[in-house]
Structure formats: structure tokens, C-alpha cells
Amino acid sequence: MTATAHTGRHRGAGYRVGATVLIMIGAIVGSTVAYALARAFGAGTTTAGTIAGVAMALGIVGLGLAVRATLSPAEQRVMVEPRCEWWISLVVAIGVAFAARVGIGVLTEIGQRLDSGLCKRLNDLSLEPTPLMWQKVAVAVSLVVLAPLGEELVFRGILLRGLVRMAPFAASAWISGALFGASHIQYYATWPVLLGVGFFGVANAYIYRRFGYRTAVATHALFNLAAAVFLFVDVPQVDVQCPA
């Protein structure tokens, strides 16, 4: 990732790393407040959870844009500029997203052989209450639109570009990927998925450097699309018998 000439406000690596931490803290706090307010007004846990998830995604987008606005015009432009044709972005996104989903599947299978309790935790997730249609749409929009736009702006455009000013790109990619994975607290109980999301973050750091923001967003959106599609597919819930 090459250095960019700045005109106007100059922000160093420390500012970018600190801003990323504050963005995530702010988004989590906003999400928590949204959940508490929804519950206070009588919403059920599923409805409140949906509202909280959308609030967090919107918070990351909004706070990310606010931080981007504090950077120089040149940096704002280079942060999101495309670096390849749109069809190349699409081909790369499809290939990487598919490979990442297969990789997470493999990690999950290995994890279940190593962790006897993992099967039950995965099974508990699959048996969660089916949300209403508006909740499905809200979650799908968060997964496929808001999360890719906001998280790629924050973890690649802001954080990664800050880290490479302090460390080699390879180290920066792994650090940003690890923090990206750690930000997905909903996967803490299912550690192979958490690992897979972290590895995906590392891969998307390289995607961002070579192909630009648009390709990173497309890859992230297609990666999340699989989960979004299953929201609208009527798959019978089966209580899988896990090994004792």
C-alpha cells in the first residue's frame, strides 16, 4: 500500500487505530442502548435483537464516515477508490467468498472433533426462534449492505491504512484481521466460526490492497449473502443429536 500525499488535515497511524477502537465501542454502546430501549417499550428479545443489530451496523457506517471526513481530501479519495474493473471485482468477490465459506465449514468440522460441546452450541443457534418477515429483511440488509460498507471502511480503509504506517503489510493484515474477527462477539461461543471470520478479515486486507474498497465490499457482501439467504428459506429445524 503506497503512501499518499496529503493536502489539508494530516492524521497519523495512532489516530486511525484509536478511531477504530472508538468506532467499535460507540457502535456497541449504541446497539446496547437500542436493545434496552426496545425492551423497555415492550419488544420481545428477537425484535430487540434485530433493532440492536441494525443500530450497530448503522453506527459503524455513520461513525466510519465521520472519521473519514476528518481526513484530507486526498486520503478520503484513495481510501475508497476502485483499483480494477467492476467485472474483476465481481469474479474475485465470488471466488474468495465461496472459498471462505468452504473454509469455515472445514474449520467447524474440525472444531467439532476437538470440542465436544461445540455441536450443542451450534445446534442451539440453529434452533433460535424464526424472526418475522420485517426482521428477516432488516437483518438481510444489515448483513449484505450495511455491514460490508461500514466494516470495510473501518477495518480496511481506516485501521489497515493506519497499521501499515507502523508495521509491514503482512503483520498489519493479520492484526486487522484478528481485530475484525474479535469484533464479531456473536461468534465467541462457536470458536471455529470466529477463527474463520478472522481469516476472512486477513484475506480481505489483501483484497483491499490489490483490488480496492469496492472489491472488498463485494467480497464481504457475498460472504454474508449465504447467511442472509437462509433467513428466507424454510428449512425445517432439526434438533441434531450431538455426541455425549
What does this structure look like?
- With 244 residues, this protein is mainly alpha-helical.
- The chain has one domain.
- It is 75% helix and 0% strand.
- α6 (133-163) runs antiparallel to α9 (213-231) and α8 packs antiparallel against α9 (213-231).
- The longest helix has 31 residues, at 133-163.
- The model is unreliable at 2-8 (pLDDT under 50).
Features:
244 residues; mainly alpha; 9 helices; 0% strand; globular; disordered N terminus
How many domains, as an integer? 1
H and E order: HHHHHHHHH
Shape from CA axes? globular
Strand content: under 5%
The level of helicity is over 70%
Could you give the distance between the termini? 50 Å
The low-pLDDT segments are 2-8
Short description:
The protein is mainly α and 244 residues long. The chain contains nine helices and no strands.
Secondary structure blueprint with pairings:
Blueprint: H1 13-40, H2 45-69, H3 73-80, H4 86-114, H5 118-126, H6 133-163, H7 169-182, H8 191-211, H9 213-231
